[in-house]
Amino acid sequence: MASEEPLVAVTCTAPVNIAVIKYWGKRDEELILPINSSLSVTLHQDQLRTTTTAAVSKDFTEDRIWLNGREEDAGQPRLQACLREIRRLAQERSSARDGAPPAPSLSYKVHMASANNFPTAAGLASSAAGFACLAYTLAQLYGVEGDLSEVARRGSGSACRSLHGGFAVWHMGERADGKDSVARQVAPETHWPELRVLILVVSAEKKLTSSTAGMQTSVETSPLLRFRAEAVVPARLAEMTRCVRERDFEGFARLTMRDSNQFHATCLDTFPPISYLNDTSRRIIHLVHRFNGHHGATKVAYTFDAGPNAVIFTLDDTVAEFVAAVRHSFPPESNGDKFLQGLPVRPAPLSEELKAALATEPAPGGIKYIIATQVGPGPQVLDDPHAHLLGPDGLPKPAA
Amino acid sequence: MASEEPLVAVTCTAPVNIAVIKYWGKRDEELILPINSSLSVTLHQDQLRTTTTAAVSKDFTEDRIWLNGREEDAGQPRLQACLREIRRLAQERSSARDGAPPAPSLSYKVHMASANNFPTAAGLASSAAGFACLAYTLAQLYGVEGDLSEVARRGSGSACRSLHGGFAVWHMGERADGKDSVARQVAPETHWPELRVLILVVSAEKKLTSSTAGMQTSVETSPLLRFRAEAVVPARLAEMTRCVRERDFEGFARLTMRDSNQFHATCLDTFPPISYLNDTSRRIIHLVHRFNGHHGATKVAYTFDAGPNAVIFTLDDTVAEFVAAVRHSFPPESNGDKFLQGLPVRPAPLSEELKAALATEPAPGGIKYIIATQVGPGPQVLDDPHAHLLGPDGLPKPAA
């Protein structure tokens, strides 16, 4: 595809975020406006990230997108909503600032390629990282500055939280047009260096209810969800913000567990009921409470999203012992050497007292592997042109 | 133990009841007063019953009790509360009615023996049948007539509902002394002859949180439970009463499932969370929804108490097909011939369409066996002296 005017390409990365005050339920399906505010921790991109390249060229004949090397439908409504929104912002910008450097023509079609460095099978909310990365990359491409909450949010609600490093709150807002439904940073990634995150990837049986369909049914059928959104979350959000600001781990941990449990309670109150937790998830919950009980302190917290995998929060001085407790309760089945991935965790002995306190029948293979990570920064621009997922021809590089 | 004055013994039976509007949480632990009203279906004693013999003799030196042939502590507070309450009523009665036949002296000690005709392993709420039977038997012994709600309730809250056949409501009441916290019959056992009940006994892993401890923790920690009790249950109770009175099976079935789910949701919202449902329970829930979906009508309902066993409600014209669906999804492991107990259910073929609709990976052995039963009457007096569980010496008969 020879062209006189070469394509313009930008590549960025964006992080996964894990909500500790959960988002579940929209008040506006089209604009993706939530029924309550939520608060999340941004995970480090060294372990979990999405990389996206966006390129424009006058030679492109249509918008196209590749996810993990496979072409997907670029006409899907949420992707188109993101593209419309970023082009609108770019238009505003070029009208407003005469001295700004020229941006690629908004009439050109765009090619997008996105890839995760973690297996989709991990069941992590990859759409949040994906749409945050897309919003950020397109903003770089078009020279758009300022709040990208709406661009990301139109792709996937929780994506707006992945625009920030550290700890982010997505304010539900009050306006019908959603202009005040935006994500803001509560504290940067350097704020709480001792905090550690473990993702326990659970062997799951089959495909689950999608969160989009699930939360819609919950809004329609669960009396408890409405009560939670209106009467419980506002105070919890304030309390969680305080816990993060003051680095109050015990408060943070207890509220994280309670809010995860309440989210899953509203799923169960949905009709027909939604169950994302399985027996292994419940064993992990039990393990955490026993571990904390043994220590007489809340040293570890769990949270679960729309799937059976646990995300564990703890502090650096507890990681090794808790990982040993997990290994004890869920002996690795085959990949003993790859059971622990990500940040190194030194082996630690388990005291006989703790083993007795855990009092669990070992469940071999219940956990496939662990990813150890920490709090991390927001989206990043990759300046190295080798990082592009699209080649000079605007198509995915073979390696991608 | 030779005695000039032989012992006076009475033997009665009482039924198990299954709540369709659930009781969970006390506002008074001592008096056992609930935070919401509940409604239950009384199961037939041909399949599930408790038999209790109570005997008094001036030769007895202490109150004693045997459960399923094993002596238990008669000093346990709840049992003593029942005894105090029935003796108080007997005292009132003897003071009030001069012409009443003489009752055994209230100063004599009592021996009690109780046995269930169903395995404790079935995980059915045997304490409700047990305390209802005890209250009823002691009332017969002392010639006490009238409402026994308080006697039974002091033993186990839901026991007061087992004092009635058919369908019973336990009104929470408003008084601090609990005098208006009583059970009443909504409809007799002859009211809805088509209604069938299947108990799916699930293979469980280990001992669960007791309901007494569980509901106390829920009251203390679950914001959703309080909301449920105050804002959700009153309207549901009225609606369930209407469904029963009008024999509206679809309304009854949907509300039964929703209320079971909401009860378990409040358990999950408890901290630490309580999980009574396991993966097999969830498979049963899924099976019921798929079965109903296939038929385009709510033909089957599930409800779960403080354990993983399912209680299924359906109508006589649907029992056979649903049992076949259960057999298909949970192939019996070893006891194929004893898989179905209780009322006979004719074998029925499963259509290929229904098999496809169920779309479940068979889980062999997940269900241990099924007890088929129906709605039944309240407590009964057994006139045959051979039915006594205590011999002339006031001790359990060897056979008991």
UniProtKB/TrEMBL annotation, chains A, B:
One of its GO terms (cellular component) is cytosol. Pathway: Steroid biosynthesis; cholesterol biosynthesis. Keywords: ATP-binding, Cholesterol biosynthesis, Cholesterol metabolism, Lipid biosynthesis, Lipid metabolism, Lyase, Nucleotide-binding, Steroid biosynthesis, Steroid metabolism, Sterol biosynthesis, Sterol metabolism. It is an enzyme of class 4 (lyase). Gene3D superfamilies: 3.30.230.10, GHMP kinase, C-terminal domain (3.30.70.890). The keyword Lipid biosynthesis applies. GO terms for biological process: cholesterol biosynthetic process; isopentenyl diphosphate biosynthetic process, mevalonate pathway; positive regulation of cell population proliferation. It catalyses: (R)-5-diphosphomevalonate + ATP = isopentenyl diphosphate + ADP + phosphate + CO2. It comes from the Eukaryota. Its EC number is 4.1.1.33. One of its GO terms (molecular function) is Hsp70 protein binding. Residues 14-183 form the Diphosphomevalonate decarboxylase-like N-terminal domain. Residues 197-382 form the Mvd1 C-terminal domain. Catalyzes the ATP dependent decarboxylation of (R)-5-diphosphomevalonate to form isopentenyl diphosphate (IPP). Functions in the mevalonate (MVA) pathway leading to isopentenyl diphosphate (IPP), a key precursor for the biosynthesis of isoprenoids and sterol synthesis. Belongs to the diphosphomevalonate decarboxylase family. NCBIfam families: mevDPdecarb. This is Diphosphomevalonate decarboxylase.
